[in-house]
Structure prediction request, 460 residues.
Amino acid sequence: MPQLSVDSRPQLARKARLRTDQLTGETLLLYPEHGLVLNSSAAAILRLCDGRSVGDIAVELAAPLADVLELLTTLSERGLVTEGDGSIAGAG
Amino acid sequence: MDRSRGRGEGVSPRPYVLVAELTYRCPLRCAYCSNPVEVQDRAALDTADWQRVLGEAFELGVVQVHFTGGEPLLRDDLEALVARAAQLELYSNLITSGVPVTRERLAGLQAAGLCALQLSFQAARLGSSAAIAGVDAFTHKRQVAAWARELELPLTVNVVLHRQNLDEVASIIALAEELGAERLELANTQYLGWAYQNRAALMPSLAQLDAARAVVADARVRLRGRMELLFVLPDYHGDRPRTCMSGWGERYIVVTPDGRAMPCHAAHILPLEFPDLRAQSLGSAWNDSDAFQRFRGTDYLGEPCKSCDRREIDHGGCRCQAFLLTGDATAADPVCGLSQRHDLVVAARAAAAEAAPALTLRRLHVVR
Prediction:
């Protein structure tokens, strides 16, 4: 598994779906047999995983780069975020 | 959902998962099947019924739906049900034997909004697979997995483990890797439903389990981030029960092919009247029915559970297993070392040292 860096372009894995909880309004990350309730900063980061770089996401959210990297690395170790290959930005 | 739960007095918990058992019919005859041994001869829910049930599940808070069975592909309205789930933004999983399906149908289900495919294998090789399933489906299943990869449909490979295939675990993991599975679910058999009829033939030895566990632990490190590897030990070999279904009526709703709502897919055997969704809504079944409230929480538990510090964790274990083995659905699950009837489980485990009897392949027994 490649290490994520400031230049990585993370994307949600195909098996993972982001949606708004119908009862609470919170953001859910759903994948086979599981779901995570995201806090607002995690939700904001994942919603920007659209082909832009980790660095750009941190700038856009005015969030500490280390926090953005840590979250995305954790999710990548769980197979929920993958490193983009450049062809993904317009897909899905 | 990774979230601590808790609820006020009189308030129902929130269901997260709907298990939609679309039919009990299946082209395979797996000896470990968890489906009921006898099925009542009642008409199946039609398309409109199922679509209504999906809507009611959404309103209750459900976020994932498992289309399962039997073999859900045997229903020709599966696409319409997947589409309804997608419209509600439910995460839809198709839990299937892969028989029968074509590439075109798989693509159609994906277009309808199917999120993920869970494909069963019985073993790592054709011969052992056919012996367990009663049908030679191995080659076709490999083809289905290849189609899923071509279509970029997320793939879980699911293998129920037991005495007859545990020694193949390394090959099973290699097969799942080769097939490009994102997740491999290796769950040891639960001895309920049809599997209970075959318990002696399926019960593994402790040595088999220990060897398999070591193989899985190594593979999990190697595959980290590439393939999620789930290994569920058989509860007969633990000394504390599992938290069955995350608690009775806490997270899961099972709906049977004929429209009964149940807290667990093995609950048919219990002496309870399960709500008929042709006559009442899923909401009233979940919130108000006796069947869903009977074993919610821990109030019904007697000793040794009542004074046990794990009662809020495991709720005394599996209600169906407690009833199946002791005749008392409020008893401690006998897999627990503290149960008064743990001797039943110890004896069943010891039987694994004997020669295994032949597998009895599943057949659908409809009671009229």
About this structure: The CA atoms of residues 145 and 179 of chain B lie 6 Å apart.
